[in-house]
Design goal:
Helix 2 crosses helix 3 and helix 3 crosses helix 4. The radius of gyration is 17 Å and the shape is globular. A 9-stranded mixed sheet has the order 4-1-5-6-13-12-11-8-9, sandwiched between helices. It is an alpha/beta fold. The chain has a single domain, classed as 3-Layer(aba) Sandwich (Rossmann fold).
């Protein structure tokens, strides 16, 4: 059987005494895609629009992974003192690939920062730190290991996400930014107990799904309860 090719956007960092630029990606993303029946292709960070178009054309679906903060300039705000590290070039690389994926009508999935940058690409905004969202927010940066679930999310009826994972779900949590205003054409489909958005879909772009938690880390567990998320991405990409 021919496996769909899922492009995963790489982060960039420097490594070693020579500060050589690296293109990096967590192994659990790759393993989850492969376990779900797909081929993982790492798309290197870049600014050449023609090259990015070619990369999207090579892929059957795109996954935008977790990473550093989104630069608040991109959603019309000055940087707050609680905003973390960001990289405008990295943001623009991801937004360009997101836009090209939507234009090509290919499945687009996001994880953690991936959800946030997809929302910004659609004209939405973020809270630069979760403390700015209100007084009663949960602790969304858990001290437990990455494959341990620490809080509950409730999932909307008749959503793709509910079809995959059910009405309620225990998830892990490693983020300090969160959606404030939804982007155009997007809708919230999952919420934490403090009311913050944990999942988005779109009626306008039906092959779009993004979550705020890290489903790829559950590949480390004997029973991977999050595998349906990746199976759906692969299935949509096989059409």
């Amino acid at each position: 059987m021919e496996r769909p090719v899922i492009g995963i956007l790489a982060s960039k960092y420097t490594f070693g005494k020579w500060n050589l630029l690296q293109h990096g990606l967590g192994d659990n993303y790759v393993r989850s895609i492969e376990e779900a029946g797909g081929l993982a292709m790492i798309i290197p960070h870049g600014t050449d629009e023609e090259l990015l178009t070619d990369y999207v054309e090579c892929c059957d679906g795109i996954l935008v992974p977790g990473g550093i903060d989104v630069d608040p300039v991109l959603f019309g705000e000055e940087r707050h003192e609680l905003c973390g590290e960001s990289d405008m070039e990295y943001d623009l690389f991801q937004i360009s690939v997101i836009q090209k994926t939507i234009a090509a009508g290919k499945p687009l999935f996001g994880i953690c920062r991936g959800l946030q940058v997809i929302n910004v690409a659609f004209g939405g905004t973020l809270y630069q730190d979760i403390s700015l969202a209100g007084d009663n927010v949960l602790g969304h940066v858990q001290p437990q290991y990455r494959n341990v679930a620490t809080h509950k999310v409730t999932i909307a009826d008749d959503s793709m996400l509910q079809m995959l994972l059910g009405e309620e779900l225990e998830v892990n949590s490693f983020h300090h930014q969160v959606i404030h205003e939804l982007g155009r054409g997007l809708k919230a489909v999952a919420w934490a107990e403090d009311g913050l958005i944990e999942g988005i879909e779109s009626d306008v772009y039906p092959n779009l799904l993004a979550v705020q938690w890290h489903p790829e880390n559950f590949i480390m567990n004997k029973e991977d309860v999050m595998l349906p998320f990746f199976v759906k991405l692969v299935a949509l990409s096989s059409k």
